[in-house]
Write a structure and sequence with these properties.
The chain crosses the membrane at residues 12-34, 40-58, 79-103, 109-127. With 166 residues, the chain is mainly α. It is built from 7 helices and no strands.
């Protein structure tokens, strides 16, 4: 796993894992919806479940731990990892406790909820998560500073344009 992460990069593996999980969730939904019409859809659903787990293990399972450790300097890193671990286990607990109720409520469309969430996670990661492969903490922090400064400059430019029109 570590060799793959170093070769392919954290962000690209994370995005590939999220997209693979998204496609697998859609295929699981289609398989469950069509199960009553086509008996062989049970095999499609099983393959989709295995692929979902494989894509999780390639991307969203391990990669956030790499990224969290690389996004924070030495001082706040333990607190950031503790918060990330708490969020991870709290979400696992919520999904574990609520899944049966959601499955009873949504029926074969239960994985459509996961597909929607995975799409949101993919878009967030695509637009907000930087590649940290081969970069020092200072280089990663500089990327965030540039984004923050450019967003601030755009806001100031819009404010100036707004006051010129008035």
């Amino acid at each position: 796993q570590v060799f793959l992460v170093e070769k392919a990069g954290r962000r690209s593996l994370f995005l590939a894992g999220l997209m693979g999980m998204l496609v697998s969730a859609v295929v699981m939904t289609v398989g469950l919806v069509l199960l009553s019409q086509f008996a062989w859809m049970s095999y499609v659903s099983m393959v989709a479940i295995f692929l979902f787990v494989i894509f999780f293990e390639v991307g969203p399972g391990p990669i956030p731990w790499f990224i969290v450790a690389e996004l924070f300097s030495q001082g706040p890193r333990p607190a950031a990892i503790a918060v990330a671990g708490f969020c991870n286990w709290a979400c696992n607990f919520i999904v574990g406790m609520c899944f049966q109720y959601i499955a009873d409520l949504c029926g074969p469309y239960v994985f459509a909820i996961f597909a929607g969430l995975l799409l949101i996670f993919f878009l967030f990661a695509y637009f907000k998560v930087p590649e940290t492969k081969g970069k020092s903490f200072e280089e990663i922090a500089a990327v965030f500073r540039r984004k923050k400064l450019s967003a601030k400059a755009m806001t100031e430019l819009q404010d100036l344009r707004g006051s010129e029109e008035a």
